[in-house]
Amino acid sequence: MMNQQDEILYSKIEMTLLRSPLEAIVSITVKSTEVLNSDLALLKFLVGEKNMSGIVVCVDRDYKQMKDLIESIGIDSESLLYIDAVTLYTGKELEENHHENVFFVDSPSNLTFIDIGITELVERLNGGFLIFDCLSSLKLYNNPKTLGVFMYDLASKLRLEGVYGVITLIEEDSGMELHSTIKAFCDKNVVIKTGRDI
Amino acid sequence: MNRVRTGIEGVDRMTEGGFPEGHLIALVGPFGAGKTTFALQYIREGLANGETCMYLSLEEGEDRLIKTALNYGWDLKEHIGNEELTILKVEASDITNSMSHLESSFPVTIRSIGASRVVIDPFTLFEMLFEDEAKRRKNVFDLCDVISDTGATVLITSEVNEDMKGSRYGLIEYIVDGVILLHRTSDDYGRVRHSIQVEKMRWSNHSNEIKPYEVTKDGFKVYIKSKVY
Asked: Which of A23, A62, A77, B42 is 20 to 30 Å from B104 at the Cα level?
């Protein structure tokens, strides 16, 4: 169930996305405390309203946790694919029968295999969307310049494949050079504020 | 120019469809990079196409190579029984005693069994036999020359030098028709990353890009649509 502030966030995201063509690459800047809510609002709109399938890149929590969160707000997660850079990194064993929609990467520092995973999953999508909310975490594990190149290549790949890309940026990091770089190659940059984060 | 598919899709795409037929190709890489897997996959592709193949091993015995291949689901035994595959194990001491004999007998063997694909793994052991650089150069050149004359498409594997940017003696790159280099690097956290590059491929408009690869349960896999970060 969504509370009033979640509804505000959802309607702002809905309005933002409705105003931008869905083949674009969009950056959404939110407070760090709103990243997860923003993700869920995005998914509610893209999956629930637009009936799209998509990819969620999981670096801050493993795909199972993300899947549970998504399902907890009533979104059908069957149409979602995941890049999971948490499970193996934390030393968890992979179960045998849950891998079809998940591409596991051994570490958040392995941008090469995150790229390989995205490439493979994008081919299965036939359009759709990709939500990338983990820039802040990836910068802990990767050189900012390399991460900038990775993000640029990712945006190019998504454009080429007609995948709608949403890159979530954290407002507290807005002074970072990497943010300016990303905003420069995004087609649209929006800042979303809710009552709770002001 | 006919192309010989390697059995590794990414490598075929990087080389305009595979190795040029009849060429001598060097696969240069550090230990644990997957050179033998690559070589076995190359042989397995030939066998799948009905070709006669030969694997000259200077390190691992036939049983071990069969087990390694089986680990990827490639059963070589049947092909050995049908004389489609010949595995020769040559001891380093035999080479030392009779390099000239090897130079004459090896091409004869390739021709007599009609092998169109040949692997020599690892070729570095030949090079190590000669302390004198001039002798090494002459003998390696002569051996490559007689092998090339057989018309088979030959893959030789070689260890890298200390800086991992070329073969151990920096010699075979000048002799062979093609060079594929396997890179091993570590990220800031010490995690190993593997990548592949076609450094030279005569008569080919080959890719110069460095592409990631891994050795999976199904063999050597190159991720041609991705890049190394």
From this structure: B42
Residue type, A58: C
Interface test with chain A among B188, B193, B226, B227, by most A beta carbons within 10 Å:
B226
Is position A12 within any domain? no
pLDDT for the residue A155: 96
Name the average pLDDT for chain A. Answer: 88
HEC profile of A38-68: HHHHHHHHHHHHCCCCEEEEECCCCHHHHHH
Q: What is the DSSP string of chain B?
A: --EE--S-HHHHHHTTSSEETT-EEEEE--TTSSHHHHHHHHHHHHHHTT--EEEEESSS-HHHHHHHHHHTT---HHHHHTTSEEEEE--HHHHHH-HHHHHHHHHHHHHHHT-SEEEEETTHHHHHT-SSHHHHHHHHHHHHHHHHTT--EEEEEE-B-TTSSSBTTS-HHHHSSEEEEEEEEE-TT--EEEEEEEEEETT-------EEEEEETTEEEE-TT----
Please report which confidence band the pLDDT of residue B186 belongs to, taking 50, 70 and 90 as the band edges: confident
The interface pTM score, or ipTM, of the predicted complex is 0.82
A141 touches chain B (CB under 8 A): yes
Whether A97 is covered by a domain: the verdict is: yes
The answer to whether residues B45 and B5 touch, using CB atoms and an 8 Å cutoff, is yes
Instruction: Supply the pLDDT for residue A134.
Output: 85
Chain B residues interacting with chain A (CB cutoff of 8 angstroms) = 187-189, 191, 193, 212, 223, 225-229
pLDDT in tens, B54-66: 999 999 999 999 9
CB of A174 within 8 Å of a chain B CB? The answer is: no
Q: Find chain B residues with C-beta within 8 A of A150's C-beta.
A: 229
Is any Cβ of chain B less than 8 angstroms from the Cβ of A149? yes
For chains A and B, what is the number of CB pairs under 8 angstroms? 34
Superfamily of B3-222 according to CATH: P-loop containing nucleotide triphosphate hydrolases (3.40.50.300)
Segment B161-171 mean pLDDT: 86
Q: Is residue A131 part of a domain?
A: yes
